[in-house]
Design brief:
- With 353 residues, the protein is mainly β.
- It has one domain: Neuraminidase (6 Propeller).
- The chain contains two helices and 27 strands.
- Strands 18, 19, 20, 21 and 22 form a five-stranded antiparallel β-sheet that branches. Strands 23-24-25-26-27 form a five-stranded antiparallel β-sheet, with no helix packed on it. A four-stranded antiparallel β-sheet has the order 5-6-7-9, with no helix packed on it.
- Strand 12 and strand 13 (124-125) form a beta hairpin.
- The longest helix has 7 residues, at 190-196.
- The protein is globular and about 60 Å long.
Amino acid sequence: MVFAWAYDAGSQKNTSLPTTLVTNMSNSDHTTRTLLLSQKVPGLLLVSRGSTSNIDPLAEDITSGHSQIKAFNISDVTNPYDFTNSGTLLGWGLRNSVGVVEHPVTGGIFSIENSADDVERDGVDIHENNPGEELNFHGYLNGTKYYAQGQNYGYPTCYSVWNVSEIPDNGNLTVGSPFAIGDMNSTVNDTICDDSTIPARLTFQAHWAPLDIKFNTNGTTLWATSHGSWDRTVPTGYLLFALDFENGQPTQPANSTTAAISIVSNQNTSNCPDSCFRPVGLAWDSKGRLFMSSDSTGEIYVITTSEGLAVNNATATTAGVPAATSSKAAAANVRVQEVGLWTLIAGVAFWIF
């Protein structure tokens, strides 16, 4: 469920009992819900709900409410919304879109997708490098028309190619192409995927597990955390990366393999995921510095320029490459400082500075 409280910013305390806004979206496996309040259309709340298993057959039915992103008008809620039967559908067939963001200039809505594990095609294990993680575009909340808004993004039948060569019967597939998994037949095949689902705007290495995304103020850079792999022989991910944007869209084409620019990464991932940092949450402060959490190590980092200045106005290409040389260092022109530790005691978060 989604709850709301009246809040006093001065005292930093809630001043009311909880009000229930949205109900009927509980399921197993992907149990978290991402919330985003629109800044372009005040009163609209986006809610992202994931799948109930790795490959969730119920998500193939649009009426199930599984693996969907919806928007709800919460400006005057008299009765709670039912997630399954209410709201404006921005997209379905979205396995687990943990990161959801609104472009600060155009108002376009983007999500970043954790794709499936242990995938096979025609009896061949292709899970090491397929399917790719996805950046998806879902249109606008202000009434601007977008042909794909509310449409099917593929899951649980269709996914995005990352490594073409490892996919059997790959035909004309390229990076980012939607492809079918399982046993190909007359109703489950690449042509069906291509004709009936919305392709990803960008595709990334399989098992990066992207979790949070944030735009800078002018919308020229999208920052993203990669929590990193568990379902892969050689660990991958565990980084903060950035994407260049122009006019509200990524500058790289949909089949790019170089769109993601590594900003902060673990130098040695051989000990991951047990002994390395795993980026999760992002937050901007009033000075334009970017804060990043690591759940595995209980650390908070702040990312600035090498001079200690704001990175909010930096584009991805100027934010710094190559990748970091140590687990707590950043790419050229970027400085990372550990600013605190956090821990959970009896369910309460404590910050240690």
